[in-house]
Amino acid sequence: MFSGGQKMAEMSDLERMRHSAAHVMAEAVLHLFPEAKFAIGPPIEDGFYYDFDLPRSLTPEDLGRIEQKMAEIVRLNAPFVRSTMPREQAISFFRDRNQPYKIELIEGIDEDPVGIYQSNTFVDLCRGPHVPSTGKLGPFKLLSVAGAYWRGDEHRPMLQRIYGTAWPTREELDAYLERLAEAQRRDHRRLGRELGLFSVHDEVGAGLIFWHPRGGRLRTVIEDYWRKRHYQAGYELVYTPHVGKANLWETSGHLGFYRENMFAPMDLDGQEYFIRPMNCPFHIKIYQSAVHSYRELPIRLGELGTVYRYERPGVLHGLLRVRGFTQDDAHIFCRPDQVEDEIFRVLELNRSILSAFGFSDYRVYVATRPDKYVGEPADWDRATLALQRAVDRLGISYEVDEGGGAFYGPKIDWKIRDALGRSWQCSTVQFDFNLPERFDLSYVGDDGRPHRPYMVHRALLGSLERFLGVLIEQYAGAFPVWLAPYQAVVIPIADRHLLYAEEVAHRLAAAEIRVDVDARREKLNAKIRDAQLQKVPYMLVVGDAEAQNGTAAVRLRSGENLGQRPLDEFIALVSSIIRTRSLSLTDPGVVVGEPQAAGAR
RNA sequence: GCCGACGUAGCUCAGCGGUAGAGCAGGUGUUUCGUAAACACCAGGCCGAGGGUUCGAAUCCCCCCGUCGGCUCCA
Questions:
Q1: What would the pLDDT profile of A56-113 be if each residue is shown by its tens digit?
Q2: Which terminal Cβ of chain A has fewer Cβ within 10 Å, N or C?
Q3: Structural domains for chain A
Q4: What is the spatial distance, in angstroms and rounded to an integer, between the CA atom of A121 and the C1' atom of B72?
Q5: Do A80 and A20 meet the contact criterion of CB atoms below 8 Å apart?
């Protein structure tokens, strides 16, 4: 049974088949658990699920049994037969079968009579549509069991959800399973450990990240690039404290609206202090430290600001969901007449920066006024329009997320899609009608009178933690040269080549190439293997011939062997690849989006 | 927070009432080597924390903490 009524009509053939697979799975479950109670079983992206109330917890072995039973039902090729039943009759029908969730579903829909589908021995409340018969299901596989609240409400019973996937052909199923396996191989938590990028520690606390030297390198490169681009774009960068007195958070409204996400207060000299969950109030204090003329605006204050938020224990996930993270935050204070242009500039900067990291596939959402909001509807409309016009001007298509804005203003959410087609929320641009009011912000207009500035809150990478997590998975740890923690490793073949290896390393380092010498008493093969596993872009093998010729034998992490290259030539090549932030190891021209004329080094 | 699974050496895992194991990583030797793992030896553990059951607990039970898959949440 699928609950999203109006979406039924739009169900694609694939969704229809998956939905039918959910029915077949339900019958199989009923066969194993005659007392099972059924909730809903919709198709989802890549598959389907069905929620059940069962007398005991399912085990992985159960999945195998259910799959087998499903295969039997498929072999029977039983037709899906649609019929209808008057509401009252349907209610008593499901009451007889002890199906309280179905009764609740019927009570929630307006139709009379209601749709009923039967396939083989299984009868379910359902609008359909379905495939003609159970034999028409594509190849399927059950994937996992998980808890899920009835109707997604944490105060209602916890049901057991079985996830499955189904595809038109065996090849597509295999490709999907391969994609899952690839996602696992790319898991940033695993790569983070293997590549020595970061760690978390029980003894310290969940969701708190330690950046190791290599991860630190990576992060520093990103931060340096970020700072450079922001100075170029007319931002001023600031540093502000990580804690503030309760009074500040009272004024900002965080204690009223956000307290459950804040770390508990600490007491100093009888005053309550809170660790910051956001940077905005601090940037506002900087704005307020002087009187501003309309001529000074816009003022753009940026900070790589570390914040701490209480996240419930069950939601933490590697770098993607943490309790302490650094936002690439900025607040723009501007006049109403400047706002559209400012938004446009933010979006333009965002597109440019994301493209430098190789992200060029996005989905953009403009989120409008929710039911609960502050400020004037007219201001909301104007601001929302400004957001839409700015996105239009950039030439990017977007979807409107009706009512999805924050209570304090409309926003643009910008999700990037990674190499595996998964999308990640990173960038956000948000209007704020709330804080300027609460802090009574003003600037002096050309009429000599105080005016309220507009305030825009924006983060492009989102948080460095999450962005790095996404980046690790995007590249499976094989970062573009400009980002790689080590860009080259020099591999002396025998001890007598150590001196020359050091010399090579010095030459590269002098050209600002991040380089390491593998001086271990290991065989060449072992050193190459380790560099390969560390995904170092360039391996420079040096032996007698190279020392003699002033060259290095260049091997790429792709496995390609370029043979002996004069050092100057190699350095020039790598330098230009770094400068253009190319995604290629041999061609400086492979860049995504508009090339930046930036002189990175 | 909720449902379920899981925490054993730095990592990956075996052992599942009777004296803690392997591979890799690490240390020490020997090997000086041309494009993905040389060989030998050594060391390494309060079996996540606390409490219980038992003659005896890594193993069974309870409770914390953490991790994983979901749900809920996500200014």
A1: 888 777 888 899 999 999 999 999 999 889 999 999 999 999 999 999 999 888 888 8
A2: C
A3: 5-180 (3.30.980.10), 192-242+276-475 (3.30.930.10), 488-580 (3.40.50.800)
A4: 34
A5: yes
